[in-house]
Design brief:
The complex is a heterodimer of chains A (338) and B (234).
Chain A lengths: L1 H39 L6 H22 L9 H29 L4 H23 L12 E3 L1 H8 L7 E2 H23 L1 H11 L1 H6 L4 H26 L4 H6 L1 H11 L4 H18 L4 H7 L18 H15 L12
Antiparallel strand pairs in A: 1-2
Helix pairs in contact in A: 1-6, 1-9, 1-11, 1-12, 1-13, 2-3, 2-4, 2-9, 3-4, 3-9, 6-7, 6-9, 7-9, 11-12, 11-14, 12-14
Chain B lengths: L3 E9 L6 E8 L4 E5 L6 H9 L3 E9 L2 E2 L5 H6 L2 E4 L11 H8 L8 H10 L1 H5 L10 H13 L5 E5 L7 H16 L3 E5 L3 H6 L3 E6 L2 E6 L1 H6 L1 H7 L3
Parallel strand pairs in B: 3-8, 3-9, 6-7, 7-8
Antiparallel strand pairs in B: 1-2, 1-4, 4-5, 9-10
Helix pairs in contact in B: 3-6
The chains are: A mainly alpha (338), B alpha/beta (234).
Chain lengths: 338, 234
């Protein structure tokens, strides 16, 4: 019996907890991508780097606060720097729209042109971020490290395996829950939110109903920028801030959005958790887990790891390809990316 | 002059003219129907009245006001309600949200209007929390008409409201349209089912190749042997 409990704790500690935290970050990222797609009808490749940009500003503000001795210990200082990151990410999105995307929108360019334009914006933004803060890996977290420490958990339960929950993981989940709840409340309960859903559902009919396209587009960038900065900063607090990693996040984020059904907010959240848990589950070495559950003589000799962690990104890629082949509309029947 | 008087409309979608010197009129408390063979420009004529087609010549006058240069959105504010033939509901929104979106441009309370729409289409009240995309064709059409009524239009335009619904549903929809007429709204519709549509029409316009061929009351057109022979199948 204790073996089973140990096995469960082991799996929770190394697969479920990190998977849920990472899933929350992907969900926030995928929500931004899916909203922009729903309103502006193109896949915004700059989203990952907007996350980096927002996080960078949050990080710079964190340093500034730390320099002044301002903090909210035991919580990370980055949390009070986050609003600055949000403002920066939103400001960037709005200027990118003003300078680049609006031009193509007015010309009624096909989505693929806007997509390529977003790749250009992405490269420009990568340059800006590296110019300001450089390409290095930086720490964003300070304050307390753990909510539950492995040693405390072991002492409390008497189990051999420990369960550790980092403060950053708990915070990520809480912040995501708040952001997602607020977003769904906005989309379903407010006039502006309903206008956004209507515009996303049926543009012509929304225009006939008097919805202003400029207003809806403005909201989309505002929300996408906010979500990007929140997602990026939470990821940075949980792991670390390295611009290139944020660019790489684009793949699992798109996999999440497409898996859930692009243009579909609930789908983006569900997709984010599925992709994240798949990543942690497939790259976990199950040797110890199986040792708890199997008779001694059956003990596996290998690591029982399906895929090395180096191939983490390949999992998103496989999910993406399989979804596009088998069910291009995604779980919740969103639109097909074109 | 009629409540809606669109005279000598000539235009199309940029290429050749699809309608030529076409005249359509409608009065408040009346049903006007545009019928004609496929490709006669029936829908184009209606879209021209709603401002979705560029007119090279002619004018659209609503209640004495020339609205020829206004955009469709501005025409909605002037009292026009338009129900497109296809994609005329928000499929991912509930019935009630569809109606709310119909009233989007209105300021102040819209509860009265919604109550009236629910009186007209009781099934919508029952289904108001359901997604419009989950409804049957006939119910969707009711949502579409209800959505247009939410702006309290003085002229309601319906582009083939009975396309793709069963004869029973069609009869039901026509009954509702007569109920709407009774509230004093002017109704203009384009119909494929010409014979049935003319039976409820106070005024009928038969278009052929973008031009007016016959214009009369619905009953007179139904009785006209030439109209019967050419358009109504004998």
């Amino acid at each position: 019996m204790t073996d089973v409990a140990n096995a469960i704790v082991l799996l929770t500690n190394f697969v479920i907890v990190p998977g849920v935290a990472y899933g929350s970050q992907l969900a926030l990222g995928a929500l931004g991508v899916t909203l922009v797609f729903g309103i502006l009808r193109f896949a915004n490749f700059a989203h990952g780097d907007v996350m980096a940009f927002g996080t960078m500003v949050a990080l710079l503000t964190t340093w500034w606060f730390q320099g002044m001795g301002v903090g909210i210990a035991p919580l990370p200082t980055a949390l009070i720097a986050l609003p600055f990151g949000i403002v920066a990410a939103v400001a960037f999105n709005l200027s990118a729209d003003r300078v680049v995307f609006r031009f193509y929108r007015r010309r009624k360019s096909p989505p693929v042109i806007l997509l390529i334009a977003s790749v250009g914006v992405m490269f420009a933004l990568q340059g800006i971020v590296r110019f300001i803060i450089g390409p290095d890996d930086r720490r964003l977290a300070d304050g307390a490290r753990f909510i539950i420490k492995a040693s405390e958990f072991k002492a409390a339960t008497g189990l051999k395996e420990g369960l550790a929950i980092k403060l950053s993981q708990g915070l990520t989940v809480v912040v995501t829950a708040i952001a997602v709840t607020a977003l769904f409340w906005f989309l379903h309960r407010t006039r502006a939110g309903k206008a956004m859903r209507a515009y996303s559902d049926n543009e012509d009919l929304a225009l006939l109903s008097g919805v202003s396209p400029d207003r809806v587009v403005l909201y989309a960038w505002l929300i996408a920028g906010t979500l990007a900065a929140v997602a990026g900063t939470m990821y940075g607090i949980d792991k670390s801030f390295k611009p290139f990693t944020y660019f790489q996040l684009l793949l699992p984020i798109f996999a999440s959005a497409i898996l859930g059904g692009i243009g579909h907010p609930i789908g983006a959240v569900v997709g984010g958790f599925i992709v994240a848990l798949s990543e942690t589950a497939v790259t976990y070495a199950y040797k110890k887990f199986l040792r708890y559950l199997l008779p001694e003589s059956w003990e596996p000799s290998g690591l029982m790891q399906l895929l090395s962690t180096d191939y983490k990104l390949a999992i998103s890629f496989v999910i993406l390809v399989v979804v596009l082949l088998v069910r291009p509309t995604g779980i919740f029947r969103g639109r097909v990316l074109s | 002059m009629s409540f809606l008087a669109s005279e000598g409309m000539t235009g199309g979608y940029g290429g050749a003219d699809i309608i030529r010197r076409c005249t359509i009129e409608a009065e408040q408390g009346e049903v006007a129907v545009i019928v004609g063979p496929n490709g006669a420009g029936k829908s184009t004529a209606m879209k021209a009245i709603f401002g979705m087609v560029m007119l090279r010549e002619g004018a659209v006058v609503l209640d004495g006001e020339d609205i020829t240069r206004l955009s469709p959105q501005e025409r909605v504010r002037k009292g026009m309600g338009f129900v497109p033939q296809e994609r005329n509901v928000f499929t991912t929104m509930t019935v009630q949200e569809n109606l709310e979106m119909g009233a989007y441009i209105r300021e102040g309370g819209t509860a009265d209007t919604m109550a009236r729409v629910f009186d007209l289409f009781p099934i919508l009240k029952e289904r108001r929390r359901q997604l419009a995309g989950e409804l049957s064709g006939g119910q969707r059409q009711q949502v579409a008409i209800g959505r247009a009524l939410m702006t309290e239009p003085r002229l309601l335009m319906l582009d083939e409201p009975t396309a793709g619904v069963s004869p029973v549903v069609m009869d039901d929809l026509f009954d509702r349209i007569l109920e709407i007429r009774a509230t004093g709204i002017a109704i203009l519709m384009v119909e494929q089912n010409a014979a049935q549509a003319l039976t409820i029409a106070d005024r009928g316009f038969v278009l052929v190749t973008g031009q007016n061929r016959h214009t009369d009351t619905g009953a007179a057109l139904l009785a006209d042997p030439e109209v019967r022979r050419s358009f109504l199948g004998g």
